[in-house]
Write a structure and sequence with these properties.
The chain has about 325 residues and is an alpha+beta fold. The chain contains 9 helices and 4 strands. Helices cover about 65% and strands about 10% of the residues.
């Protein structure tokens, strides 16, 4: 029996490490930018007697905490593989993303409940102070979003933090708009309406990212992966009789892995067997994006390939 793993090249790993370091630096900057926003909103909310500002402060505080979670997860993900975690710690970022997204969904549901309650029991709000604080927090959120935008392209963990900040920026816009309408016309009803709209936006975006995060944690194949087509393509290769026990999954957002039993014709020379294995793995890499392939080559009667798979697998076979 022959097991073989295909590992990433050193320079690719170095590039990933460099990108991860840059993303970590940006997360630290974003955390610093976002730390003072909820503190300012709490102070202004108390002075203005505004539940809207206090609620937005709670939202911003949770986002600051989520960036802290993202930062810790990113640092853990940078650890080297060890004897227990042989694939390394990269999935720590996915766990961070999962925590952030679940938190964000809970916050969105809370905002919906609050919006519904405020329709029937509106409180007194100082619109002018809302407008000023909203403008200040919007500037802070835009700066934070700018810092996180680039690293969010390559990490669900950072992307979840980025969506938090975008939601905060929208919340700041709502605070500004609501403050202006309340100060100018006394329309307190716009506060719960805008709050509900932001909450629905958060739910829609968080749901899609949460689905993808869970898919990777559940070791699912990439969405739309042509598993049957790949199996047929391998079986059509010279000297390959059958491919079974096929499993494809994502290690993280960027790497796809596969393991399979490959039944081959009898090949006397070990060098020829290694060449065939290399050809199979090259095809997997080039045509199907398989970064890590574990192949068990075995020799059985090729005439058995039309029998039920469970019978073929039960038949005696020689393993290389």
């Amino acid at each position: 029996m022959s097991h073989d793993h295909d590992h990433s090249e050193g320079h690719a790993a170095h590039g990933h490490s460099h990108g991860q370091h840059a993303g970590t630096t940006r997360l630290v900057l974003a955390l610093v930018f976002n730390f003072l926003i909820p503190a300012a909103e709490v102070a202004a909310g108390i002075v203005a007697g505004s539940l809207t500002l206090l609620a937005d402060a709670a939202h911003n505080a949770s986002d600051t905490a989520s960036m802290g979670v993202s930062l810790v997860a990113r640092r853990v993900a940078g650890r080297e593989a060890d004897r227990r975690r042989t694939f390394g710690y990269e999935r720590a970022e996915l766990i961070g993303a999962f925590v952030n997204l679940v938190t964000l969904i809970v916050i969105a549901l809370y905002l919906l409940v609050e919006a519904g309650q405020r329709v029937f029991t509106p409180g007194e709000i100082k619109g002018r102070l809302m407008l000023i604080v909203g403008a200040i927090t919007l500037a802070g959120n835009v700066a934070t979003a700018f810092v996180l935008y680039r690293p969010s392209k390559g990490s669900l963990n950072v992307k979840s933090a980025f969506v938090h900040i975008v939601a905060d920026a929208l919340g700041s816009v709502a605070v500004i708009l609501g403050g202006w309408l309340i100060a100018s016309y006394g329309w307190t009803i716009v506060d719960p309406i805008l709050t509900a709209a932001i909450a629905l936006y958060i739910l829609a975006h968080s749901y899609e990212m949460l689905r993808e995060t869970i898919s990777i944690l559940m070791e699912s194949a990439p969405k739309g992966f042509p598993l049957d087509e790949m199996t047929r393509a391998l079986e059509a290769m010279d000297h390959v009789c059958d491919v079974h026990h096929v499993h494809v999954w994502r290690l993280d957002e960027e790497q796809t892995a596969m393991e399979a039993h490959v039944e081959v014709e009898e090949i006397a020379e070990l060098a020829a067997l290694d060449t065939l294995k290399g050809e199979v793995k090259q095809k997997l890499r080039d045509e199907y994006g398989i970064d890590h392939a574990t192949l068990e080559l075995e020799h059985g009667a090729c005439t058995d390939q039309h029998r039920p798979q469970r019978e073929r697998e039960a038949a005696p076979a020689a393993h290389y």
